[in-house]
Hints:
By secondary structure, the protein is mostly helical. It has helices at 11-21, 25-49. The N and C termini lie far apart (54 Å).
Amino acid sequence: MSDIVEHYTDPQDASLALYLMENDGDELTDILVAALEDAFRILGEDSQTMH
């Protein structure tokens, strides 16, 4: 057994870290808003198919 610890890093975490380091809040906000819009669209589609 090895004493080496492997760390898993999510590519999305790395992208987020880059945006935060560059203080590019506007672009990060745009990405988050788009993700929320997608989530609400998906939720809306799911609720329509349940009826």
